Amino acid sequence: MHRSIALFVITIFITLTASSLPRFATRQGAKCQACHINPTGKGMRNAFGSTYGREELTMATYKEQTDIEDYSQALNNFVTIGMDYRTLYYYREQTSTSSFFQMQGDLFLDLRLNKKFRIYFNKGLYNGFEVFGLAKVLPMDGYLKIGNFIPAYGLKMDDHNLFIRGGAFFPANPDIAGYPGGLGFGQGAEDTGVEIGFNPSIFSVNIGLFNGRKGGLTGTAGTKTKAVAVRADANIQTDILNFNIGGSLYNLPTPGGPGKTQIAGAFGVFSLYNNLTLQGEYDILTTYNATKNKEVTGNVLYTELNYLLSSGIDLKLGYEFYDPNSDLKDGSVSRYTIGAEFFPLTGVEVRPLYRINQEKPTERSNNEIQVLFHFFL
User: Fold this and answer.
1) How far is CA 62 from each of CA 26, 56, 311, 342, 373, rounded to the nearest angstrom?
2) Rounded CA gap, 99 and 115, in Å?
3) Cα end-to-end span (Å), the chain
4) Which residue has the higher pLDDT, 166 or 147?
5) I need a labelling partner for 7 at 20 to 30 A (CA). Which of 160, 201, 222, 263 fits?
6) Strand-pair partners of 117
7) At 71, is the pLDDT very low, low, confident or very high (cuts 50, 70, 90)?
């Protein structure tokens, strides 16, 4: 463990001397759709989001020497491209092994058919994909979206290892291996359905109806049950504090059987003077356990504190708690994350993280080092 901590500190030191996400939106007092083609966030950035990523996130050291003049992602007046590429290096203390993992390689296309309707396409390296039609035709700056996409729920974070997304890639506690690894809204959680949204003033409301089965082709098996996802938030901006608060609900009856999958939670992002940002989410997860023949309730907590040290350098401290079954005294996991995000060049991010895993009932030496290399267009 001491060697792991030392390696992490060295990584931070070297990067320092070498000199969207919810918190970015809240720092600017903006909504997700201000930066992304998808009104609920994640994925391809629009013109403003691309400009923000190039002008505001990057260290100023090498901008003049490296930035491209007259940069544009638009191929013409109706076709725009984008990309997110993430390679992860990780070290596992439990097995004393390390590896490189190709975490993401998504290509985005935005096809404008007319002034009101567009087609959005996102294809990754693996089985996940998003494709939907988006019509900005409803009142109150509203929209209609139909296709295959991730339901709007909670904070859309880009780290799919978080328990509020897909859950840890390596289970931190074998005692909970039989339970859901997380809330299930990470990469590969796309579902086919329809969603409407409204954005009156400082508020945003999204309501979706889905098949309730992840992946586009699985929707060919029709059932009477459908999943409903509801998300609402308020975005408030002042001279000192910007904040976004809201809540989400996801409900899916078990097809052909008793019980349901239901997730309900609240979230918030608070930004002080546009550089100190606290974000968090708390959810209650109810699932049907066929072995026990009853519904099992658990809870998930995620918090993260970020401090913008200077342009291009974000320090972070995070805490997560996951208890898949509140009826049991054991089986919970706590995870502490220490790290930073560096944007040394336009379109380039390096994110070193050290994660401390603590579980009940047995403590294990299973801490992790992760270094994420992210390139985006």
Assistant:
1) 27, 14, 12, 13, 18
2) 46
3) 37
4) 147
5) 160
6) 135
7) confident
How many Cβ atoms sit within 10 Å of the Cβ of residue 105? 15
- Pair 261, 288: CB distance under 8 Å: yes
**Residue 15 phi, psi (nearest 5):** -65, -40
The reported pLDDT for the residue numbered 15 is 34
Give domain status of residue 144, yes or no: yes
Average pLDDT over residues 186-193: 86
Token pair 């994110």 in the structure block, residue: 351
Distance CA 350, CA 325 (A): 36
Residue 377 forms part of a structural domain = no
Phi, psi of 12 (to 5 degrees): -60, -45
Smallest Cα–Cα separation from 171: which of 331, 280, 348?
A: 331
Q: Which of 192, 159, 167, 158 is nearest to 283 (CA)?
A: 167
Structure tokens at 169: 């890639």
pLDDT digits (tens, 9 = 90+) for 241-277: 999 999 999 999 877 667 788 999 999 999 998 889 9
- Taking 60 as the threshold, does the pLDDT of residue 6 lie above it? no
- Residues paired with 269 in a beta bridge: 244, 279
Q: Is the pLDDT of residue 175 over 70?
A: no
Location of structure tokens 């002008």: 55
Token pair for residue 367? 């801490």
Alpha-carbon torsion (248, 285, 324, 171), positive or negative? negative
Give the domain extent around 272. Answer: 2-372
> Could you tell me the CA-to-CA distances from 101 to 78, 87, 91, 372 in Å, in that order?
35, 6, 11, 10
DSSP-assigned letters across all residues of 178-215:
TS-SS-S-STT--EEEEEEEE--TTEEEEEEEE-SSSS
Q: Tell me: the pLDDT tens digits for 192-227?
A: 999 999 999 999 999 999 998 765 555 555 677 899
Tokens of 290: 């066929």
CATH number for the domain spanning 30: value is 2.40.160.10
DSSP-derived secondary structure for 111-159: EE-SSSEEEEEEE-SSS-EEEEEEEEEETTTEEEEEEEE----S---S-
